[in-house]
Amino acid sequence: MEPHSKHGQPGWLGAWLQDRCHQGFDVPEAECLCLRMYYRFDGIPMALRHQLSRVTLASTFAELARRGWVRTAEGADDDVLTPQYWQHLLTPDYHRSVPIYDYALGEEAFQRLQPSLG
Question: Which residue segment(s) compose the domain that 93 sits in?
Fold first, then answer.
């Protein structure tokens, strides 16, 4: 439990994400977005970058999953609702033989957060 929870308040990374993409993401897209934000913080406002630590980002995505912004399949495991799920996702596995995440899907998801110029 975070001592000073900012969930839902202005200045919370989760509020910025929800404001930028109202419909949210399915779990695979959200995972790639979370990883993209952890490994590449360009495009994220400076005022929010202090929230990109593994623990804070995991807490944010768990809260977004509990709110339904991260959409799970019907009957899916509730692990996605916990910060531990997201922390495990963000923990490097140096024995992995495949890329850390789907870079293209992460960029595609992140682009959905950007304001349209049309």
Answer: 25-111
118 residues of the chain, pLDDT tens digit each: 343 445 556 579 999 999 999 999 999 999 999 999 999 999 999 999 999 999 999 999 999 999 999 998 776 678 999 999 999 999 887 666 556 678 888 899 999 988 765 4
User: Does the pTM exceed 0.90?
Assistant: no
Residue 12 resides in a domain: no
Establish if 1 belongs to a structural domain. no
SS3 sequence, 1-35? CCCCCCCCCCCCHHHHHHHHCCCCEEHHHHHHHHH
Domain assignment present for residue 15? The answer is: no
